[in-house]
Amino acid sequence: MDGTVGLCRGGESLEQAAARELFEETCARVDPQQMQLHMVGNLVRMNQIYMVFRAPLLSPEFSTTEEASEVRLFAADEFPIEDFAFPEVADNVQLFYRDLQRNRFGIYMGTLENGKNTIRVVGRED
After folding, report:
1. Which residues of the chain have pLDDT under 50?
2. Do the beta carbons of residue 86 and residue 92 sit within 8 Å?
3. I need a labelling partner for 104 at 20 to 30 A (CA). Which of 10, 36, 92, 111 fits?
4. Nearest CA-CA partner of 49 in 124, 111, 91
5. Alpha helices, DSSP H only, in the chain?
6. Is 89 exposed, middle or buried (0-12, 13-18, 19+ CB in 10 A)?
7. pLDDT for 87-107, tens place per residue?
């Protein structure tokens, strides 16, 4: 299991690129202007930075694509943590579900280095 991953094209904002990539990989649509930053993640060993956004779906339609052979929405108690591509960052997913349950979202910085996942709060939603 993995998340949507991609690059910004010329002239795209981060939110526009994330919405485009989400659509290309899952056929799910979100409004880039409604996207809220959830986490910036740093996978040190892989020299990669991840920007994680949250946004409501514009409609309940989504599907598999050539880039995603399985696409599903999960309730917190259904999420298959054991199938996660990076089990070291399962805490990041659980953090999202905790925020969702509380309906109060934070903005986080995560770093995965030498097998240790560190998460810190860098902001809160007003």
Report:
1. 1
2. no
3. 111
4. 111
5. 14-26, 90-102
6. buried
7. 777 888 899 999 999 999 999
End-to-end CA distance of the chain: 32
The pLDDT of residue 52 is 92
Q: Between vectors from CA 64 to CA 59 and to CA 65, what angle results, nearest 5°? A: 110
The amino acid sitting at 18 is A
In Å, how far are 59, 75, 89, 101 from 50, measured between CA atoms? 25, 23, 12, 23
What's the one-letter identity of residue 11? Answer: G
Contact 99, 105 (CB under 8 A): yes
Rounded-to-integer distance, Cα 93 and Cα 76, Å: 9
pTM: 0.84
